[in-house]
Every structure is written in C-alpha cells, then in structure tokens.
Amino acid sequence: MSQERPAILRVAVAAPLPRLFDYLRPADCDPARLCPGLRVRVPFGGRCRVGMIVALAAHSDQPPERLKPIAAVLDPQPLLGPSDLELILWTAAYYQYPPGDALFTALPARLRRPEALPEPGEPGWRLTAAGRVADPSGLARAPRQAQVAALLADQREGRSAAEIRRRAGDCAHALSALERRGWIERCRAPASPSLPAIQAASGPTLNADQTQAVAEVRAALGGFRTFLLEGVTGSGKTEVYLHLIQAAIESGRQTLMLVPEIGLTPQLARRLVERIPGPMVTLHSGLAAGERERAWRQAADGGAVLVLGTRSAVFVPLPRLGLILVDEEHDASFKQQDGLRYSARDLAVRRAQQAGCPVVLGSATPSLETLYNTRAGRYARLALPERAGGARPPEIALLDVRAQPLRAGLSPVLVRLTEEQLAAGNQVLLFLNRRGFAPVLTCHACGWVGDCPKCDARLTLHLAERRLWCHHCGLTRPLPAVCPDCGDGDLRTLGLGTERLETELQGLFPGTPLARVDRDSTRRKGSLERILAAARRGEVPLLVGTQMLAKGHHFPGVTLVGLLDVDQGLYGADFRSAERMAQLVVQVAGRAGRAERPGRVILQTRHPDHPLLHTLRRSGYRAFAEAALAEREAAGLPPFAYQALMRAEARDPETATGFLRSALDLAGALLATEVQLFGPVPAPMERRAGRYRAQLLVQASHRPMLQRFLGVWLEAVRGLRPAPGVRWSLDVDPLDLM
After folding, report:
1. Residues of 79-93 as b/e, b for ≥16 C-beta within 10 angstroms?
2. Which residues does residue 53 pair with via DSSP β-bridges, in sequence order?
3. Which CATH architecture has domain 642-732?
C-alpha cells in the first residue's frame, strides 16, 4: 500500500518577506510530480507570483481555510537540487535576507518570471528521414548545401542555428534550399558548449613548489579541505589551477572557478580552452541574458566540466562538483554590495564543505581573514615563493616627490626612467587609480567648484566627452564655457585622472603607441580584450590605467611600473584602507619583470617615511599582514570580531538617523555582554544620489552570538513603521564601512 504524500507545499515566494509560505497541493496534479526545486505560480497578495517549492509537509501552522492551492507548476524537473536549495537557504539565513528573494537572485533572469520553461535546447536544424537516406552526390553543384548537410549528418538530434553559423558561416540560403528539398527541418537542438572541448595542449613543467601544491590538493579530492595557495605575483598559480582542474576531470568531477572581474575571464578562458580536455562555460554579467541562461543550463545539466565565472557563479547548480577554485581571493569584488550582500569567497568555502570537496583560495596578497584562518589551522597553506621560469622579483623604490616639479603627476625621474625603458624596446606601465581628466573643475576668479548637486562629492571632468560626471550617482552635465556663478571664463582643473595622464604622455612621447585601460576606454564589448592582447604582444609600449590593470594580467614586456600617487590610500577612514593599499601596491608592482628581463617599480609619494611603504618595500606583504593582524587583535576588529552594518537612507538626514535610533532602542533589551552597537552616525559620504545616509554598527566577539542577536533584533525591527521614504538594509560581514 503506497504511502500518502504530504499535501502541504512549503514555498519560497519571490517577495521581500523573511519567511516561507504554505500552499495546498492542487487536486488535478500528480502528487509524485511535486518535489523541492520546482518553480510554481502561486496566488499572493491579490495577484500571482513566482515561487519555489523548498519542502513538503504533512501539516501547516496556518488555519486550513487560509491555505490556497498553487496555481501552476512551471517546470518539468527541479531547477535546483537538494544541495543547491540548502546552500541558498543557508545564505539567506546567514545574511538575514528573505529566502524567496535569495533563491530567485541565484537564477538566470528569465527563470525569475512566473512563466513555464520553453522546450529544452535552442532553435536549430536537423536532417529529415529523407535527408538521411539522400545521395549527397546530388549536391555536387551546391557546395554550401553539401557543407551544411554534412554538418548535420553526424548529429542526429540536430545542431543549433548558432553553431551552424559558427561552423559554416552565413548559410541562410543553403538552409532554405535544403528545407525546400525536404532534406532538413527545424527543431530544438541541444545547446552547444559556450567554449567547446578541444584537444588539450600540454603546459610547462611544474617547479618543485607547484608540484607539491598540486599533490596536496589532489590527495584531498573526494573530501572537504580548504587551501590557501599563496604565491608571489608571477609564481604560476594559474598553472597549478590547470593541473587541478585536469585531475578533477579525470575523477569524473566538475570544477567551479571564480574570478573577481569580468575583465579576467576572456584571457583566462582562452588559456583554459587550450589546456582543458572538455567543454566549459563562462558566467558573468557581461553576457546577454540568453547566453547566460544557456551557460547556466549546461552547468546544471552536468555537460560542462568547468564553470568559469564571477561572484554569482557560486550559486550555479553543479551535479558533479569536485573542486572549487577562487582566484584573487582577497578582492573586494567578491562581496556583493546591494541586495543579497553575500561574499562569494566565503560561500565557496561553505559550498565545498557541503559538497565534500576541496576549495583553493589563491592570492599573492591574501586577505587578513584568510591569513587568520590559516594561522588558526582551519586552512592549509600552500606556498609558491618564487616566480615561475626563473624570473626575478622587481626592485621596488620609493621616490620622494615633495618639492619636485610634476607634469600631470609625473616626476622628472619617472619621465627619464620611462624614456630609457622605451628606448630599450621595453614596455612601461603607469598606474593611477582615478579615471577622467581631472577630479575638480574650479573658477580661478571667484572660487566656484563643480560639486554634484546630489552627493557630497565633486564632479569629475571628462574632457573627451566635454562633460562633468559624478562617479557616485552617475549624474552628468555639459562642460560649462564660463563660470556658472560669476560668468568668468577662466575655468581651471585641479588634480589629474588617467585621461589627462594619457594626453600629457602623448606630448612627452610623440609617436609612441599608448593604451589607456579604465572603465571609460573599455565600455564597448571586446575592447578590453583587444587592448590587453595588443599589450601582451608588445604592440603598445606605454600602458596607462587604473586597478583594471592590476589584477592577474601577464605583460612579459613590462620592465618598469610607476605608481603615480600611492598616498591617496595611506590615510583612509576605513580600518581596512591600509590592507587594500598594500594589496594594490603589491599587485600592481607584480606586473613588472615577469619574463627574462628584470623589472623595476617606482612608488611616487609625499610620505616616504610612512611605515606601510617601508614594510612593503623591505619585507614584503607577509610582514605587513602580520603587523596588521596584531593591530586588529589589539583593537578588537575583524577578523578578531564579527560585524554587521545597518544602513538607512532618506530625503533628510534626521529621518534616516531617527529610524536607526528606533532600531537601537529595540536592541537595548536584547543585548548580551559580547554584543556592542556603535552609532547611529552619518555615513562618511552622508549625501548620495539626493538621499542622506546613516549607519549603525553591530559587533560581537563570536559569530554565533552575532547571528543569534541579529535574528531576534531584525524580527523586532521589521515591526517598526519607518517614516515615508526611508530605506534600510543590513550588511553582515561588511567590507565597506563608507
């Protein structure tokens, strides 16, 4: 006698509500078809919304008369498996976020709508029965038709139109002619891999340190363990990744590899395709919605042996997950800064634990949190202390620019060194982490300054577009011909950005090919990849850019790196400012001398006696990190404490601060001795996009204690009735306190 299946469906509805909702199983639906991971359409608040079944239950706490049946089941098979659901629901609980919103944040855009899935596959063509038995010699005078027919002959399920175009070029007329002959027909063809499998090429021989690192992780395949792969820039971390991916493939497992920036995926993808014997997909926000969904499906179906993606790829379903790699694990881009404010690096560790597989966190400048976990024995350290191929680390020098005449931020010494390297046929990289022409436009007659009317910030001049632009809210205005206050025409710029630096360098080094890499120069699709490819080929002797140039790029011809203004990061208000500055300096410096030619790094500064700069120059990042950890421990700051930041914003400052005061009052009766609240205070940039921002910091000595407090406190805070226009959020483990 079969057991009666539970009649209550526990559903996560795509709505900003911190709970699940119970629905009835519809009478006309086969009970065996209903299971967790299916999307459903449900009545909710007078209209229909999309939801996902997360559990089946025999009973509900709600009165029977309040329960409604679901309106429709949208999927033939679950989109998410039990482990996928567990990860996302754990994420929602840890980051104190509504479970329904968290689940649908993890899905491709089209799957977030209350619509049934289209037929699987992509629009394509296949041979008909007549086409399969036809004599191909009949197409002797129609070579394009013969090419297409041959392409379809070895794929009974058909090929997608996109794949046919990729392999045969524009063949619309040939397809139409074959259809008229009755040889082919339209179909839903299997999706082709985003990056197809090819015959894998062999790589360079591993050195002893790389071999040891690969051996230790290989030995851990099949079980959970976290590794820190700490290697100096140019030490060959990517080569270690490649060998580990190949080992996972040999064991029949999939690999998830996370990178912090879209800009790193094209060049890394090419290298992976050359070496990995199996299909792979890429997942990042630069893909069109259709491309992203196809890649997501290939990963979820188990067809891709490797998924390469940015932070949101941490949620992609992988039925055979056997290895997780996180490159540049220290990078702040792994932390989502709005909506579901998760850390992809931290979730990668959680997912590996859940899946029972190793996770490797790679960096030349590990975060202090990761170093703390390594020191505590939770992570195993794998060291790559030498540059691969015998390349020597660059020589780092501090250049005191006080009282020196600067031309667009360039000291005479740096100009001379640049001339020497260019004359020798080498490449030079000049780093300035500020885009635009100048950060300030002012009137010399009356002192007017171009401020953003919506933010506590200046408008940056972008001279090529002849516009003033706020880099915080996106507001733009035409460049005025005269001062808006006094009408005088003597408008002058203060400070410099990469656009002005590029202009000055063109005057200093006429005829020298130059490339600027920042968000402005790389807006068009494929432009960043083209610039970086030309730089790697040595076609661009002079490179200028922001931190987009600092992450993971290999420029074998660069022998001189100049950091024009390291001082802007030395005295930041955030306690993490020094850590970020040290990481940036080391990462940028690592672009020099990566081949057989020695490299040199020049740090221009007005504070040549600053202890951070001296520690980095003399003893390296590891010594800085140990000193910084000691300071954090003495101050009781992360990673020796755990934080959450409540933010509120409104049209006036008192309304935002008033909401946080009410939240603080609610916390009073709940506080344990190990939980502290600081604030509320205005945000360091109080006004942004026309709204005033305030914040309240929660800190605890133990993570479980913080989580228990947040769960109870937020339930009370949600009962508050904030003034109209107030928006608030909570950021657990915040990286940005600004």
Report:
1. bbeebbbbbbbebbe
2. 11
3. 2-Layer Sandwich (3.30)
Q: Pick from 335, 279, 338: which is nearest to 308 by CA?
A: 279
CA distance 284 to 267: 14
Looking at domain 208-388, which of 3.90.180.10, 2.40.10.10, 3.40.50.300, 2.60.40.1180 is its CATH number? 3.40.50.300
User: Residue 151 has what pLDDT?
Assistant: 83
Percentage of residues in the chain having pLDDT higher than 90: 40
CATH code of the domain occupying 8-112: 3.40.1440.60
- The DSSP bridge pattern shows strands 39-44 and 321-327 to be unpaired
User: pLDDT tens digit string along 663-710?
Assistant: 999 988 777 668 899 989 999 889 999 999 999 999 999 999 999 999
* H/E run at residue 324: strand 321-327
Among 120-134, 174-188, 365-379, the range of highest mean pLDDT: 365-379
Q: Where are the domains of the chain?
A: 8-112, 122-189, 208-388, 391-436+497-634, 642-732
pLDDT at 234 exceeding the cut of 70: yes
pLDDT at 37: 92
Class for the domain spanning 391-436+497-634: alpha beta
* 208-388 and 391-436+497-634 in the same fold: yes
CA distance 640 to 642: 7
